[in-house]
Amino acid sequence: MRFVLIVLVAMCCALSTLIPGYAADDVPLAEQGVIDLTQWDFTDGEIAYLDGSWEFYWNKLLVPQDFSTKEKSPAAFLRVPGDWNNSPPESGQVSGQGYGTYRLKVKLSNSELLKPKGLYISSVASAYKLWVDGELLAENGKIGTDPAEMQPKNYAKIVLFTPKHSEVEIVIQVANFSQRKGGLWKSIGFASEETILYKRDLNVAYGIFVIGCLFIMALYHFAIYLIRRKNKSPLFFGALCLSIVLRSLLLDETLLVRFFPQIDWTLAVKVEYITIVLSMVFIVLFAHTQYGAEMNKRFRNFFVLVGLAFSLFVLVTPPRIFTYGLTAIEVYLLVSYLYIIAVHLLAAIRKRPGSLLNGIGHLAFLLTIINEILYYRIASSLGSLVPLGLLVFLFTQMLNLSITFAQSLTRVENLSAELQQINESLEEKIAERTVALQEANAGLQRANEELSTMEQSRRKLLTNISHELGTPLTSIQGYIKAMIDGIVKADDPKFLRLIYDKTVFLHRIIRDLFELTKMEAKQVPFDYSTQGLVPYVRKIYEKFAHDLKKDDLQFVLESVNSPIAGRVPLVSIDVVRIEQVFSNLLVNAAKYTPAGGTIRLRVGLLADEKWGGHAVISVEDTGKGIDEKDLPYIFDRFYKGSEQSRKHAAGVGLGLAISKEIIAIHQGTMEVESSKGAGSTFRFTLPVRFVPAEEYEEVI
Ligand code: ADP
Hints:
Bound molecules: adenosine-5'-diphosphate
Low-confidence stretches: 1-10, 12-24
CATH superfamily of the largest domain: Galactose-binding domain-like
CATH class of the largest domain: Mainly Beta
Number of domains: 4
Shape: rod-shaped
Helix content: 40-55%
Strand content: 15-25%
CATH architecture of the largest domain: Sandwich
Oligomer: single chain
């Protein structure tokens, strides 16, 4: 902010050097139609303004000859610059409208004789004819004694001449039927030809510089608005610049008249008035777009409507009438601008962004407008500073705009970065979710497949159950019916035994089935304990050895040493359940192996790197083997093989299913290897831990 203020002050200083037309100190004043410039230094580049009291002849269009033939006593002396509306009563003038002749004698030192001089006449209301030392040198518009004859024109002129006498006589006929005020209302400059030309060049350069800047700014803001129509502030700002450009072209150096000499005076004055009112309208609209919250909408509409009404009034009435509205317009400008300043003050108090800078810009602009009003009331010698004020105002706006742009850009950059991050994480998330969905889908598909397999096996199971239960029940039914019918004796112990066996069998089926179902539903509590593998298997061997040998079978135990030196294998098992597995496998082996055959109980060990591993335990027999087509179903419930001999009809077909489930619960697997006639090998695994022998002793 401090930087901005410094730049602002520097800019004001730089521009102030360009302000033209300021009066020098110690300027001599004309008295009683004579100004004494004998002491004036024409070499220091300053303009002497011929201000003071001039001779004035109301309702007379006099020429220099009229003064040379007989010296006229002047009707009055009038102050220049000034309009003749407020002239003293002895001048005989009654209103702003009319015509008259001004005369001034300029006294020069003898050293200035024959040195080229110049007059600078910026504006006269509203037409004039000028003689210097009897020679007609300038004419602006057309002099006349009535409105029809007279033609107004406003065009800043330079008049060059060479004084031949120490007293230069200036005679100016002025006529006004066009506007409210008439007469020499602006100072007339007097200087060396060089100074006059230099000052005029400076004025033109200054005018073109300021107008050019404003014009480019107008285009720039219109372009911004066209690109982004949502925000109307550039539109109003551009319009403000453009209307000041138009106005400036008609003031001071009257550049527009210079470019287009035929331009209609009435039109030019109308544009001059309308642009000042419209400028205010645009300022109000612009301020509202910026600080809508601080500005009352009704006030805005009021100021805009009043401005438009003034414009309409100027448009439809002739300058003779609408120039009377100047005071009202000035009041309107001041009131509305004070309101704008108040709005900015409020915005600054509320710490709205840019409001302070904006307020300073507006204040600078307001000061130049006040100056403008004074200028028109002939109280300011600074000339029109509105374009300059607008430049300062414009500069503050541009700074604001740049700050807003820079901030927006930073915001956009931050947002983009955030967005990119969100995007990236979103992509990651989408990828994750996709994988999860795919997995879920695959899982669902698997679950579906499992469900349909389960459904199939459930149906098969039900069929099997009803079959398995049905068969012994039918037998029992048959026996009892025979007893009722008297075919057999009701107390025949042989039949009673048969019936009893069948019920025992039925009970076994139901018990096994119940147990298997519970195990599958993980509802059977397992009582794990740590066992030394080899001693445990040896115990099993010893337990079954007697029975198997009784059946004329050879029973062999083969065990390997621990693969890790100094460490021995331990298993964590439910000893009762695992014994059930051994029992099932060994009983089956015995069942299907003819006398003289061999049953081998083998223990193998596989170690991994982390002192863990697997025990592979197999029960091999030299029995009849299993048919290849039965192998895949051997672990299914109620599967008893396709060629079950009568001898083994008592089998339920649940033993292997239960065994496999018990091993699965112990984190192991079970499989079978067999070929018809060559015996079978049932193999299962159990996870083991290899522990140092000392610990092992403790376990035992
Ligand atoms: P079961 O109560 O009928 O023995 P299992 O589930 O234990 O039921 O066995 C299923 C079937 O697997 C048996 O009926 C038999 O056909 C076949 N089987 C099991 N063990 C052997 C084996 N050692 N040799 C040949 N067949 C076997």
